Amino acid sequence: MAIRYVCLQDFEELSALHTESAKMLARWMPGPPIVTFEDFESYLTRFDGPLHEGFLICRSDTGEIVGWVNVNNIIRGTHQSATIGYSAYASTTGRGYMTEGLGLLVRHAFDEMELHRLEANIQPSNTASLSLIKRVGFHREGYSPNFQYVDGAWRDHERWAITVEMTE
């Protein structure tokens, strides 16, 4: 597995993956799937500044995109922290790709981005995501009622985090 930055040339492959996975992801993702070129261009502009970084998780052998992870709300200074959001696609789940890919992202965030802490917020009923985040080494820190508007309602989320010390 490998991680790389998302770019404009990824539109066609990502559009197809988002379309095939729209029903699966609707329950968990806070916005509509990115299927038009305009939506994708708008999505990419979020990574123009220092607060967000967008990555793709790809198979090393084929380059095929198997998932994505965004590093959001990057805070520098005395925090050196960020929140991650991620997803696999309908055709790529259950193969261990995201476990390996998120592990690579965590190393990149701590080594290259020089972050100290990563957080993830996950709906309690998203058992696949909870299992994934545990496998990567995150620890549950709390519970946030009505945390994020997803799929037409305010949803509770569990707060999970990992620090650089937890990976040593």
What distinguishing features does this structure have?
Aminopeptidase; 168 residues; seven-stranded mixed β-sheet; single chain; globular; alpha+beta; 4 helices
Number of domains: 1
> If you average the pLDDT, what whole number results?
94
What pattern of helices and strands is seen along the backbone?
EHHEEEHEHEE
Tell me roughly what share of residues is in helical segments.
25-40%
Provide the CATH superfamily.
Answer: Gcn5-related N-acetyltransferase (GNAT)
Q: What is the CATH first-level class name? A: Alpha Beta
* Overall CATH architecture: 3-Layer(aba) Sandwich
Strand content: 25-35%
Number of strands: 7
Parts with pLDDT < 50 across at least 5 consecutive residues: none
The gyration radius over C-alpha positions equals 15 Å
The major pleated sheet works out as:
7 strands, mixed
Shape: globular
N-to-C span: 21 Å
Total number of helices: 4
Task: Indicate the CATH topology.
Answer: Aminopeptidase
Structural class: alpha+beta
Strands of the largest sheet, in order across it? 1-2-3-4-5-7-6
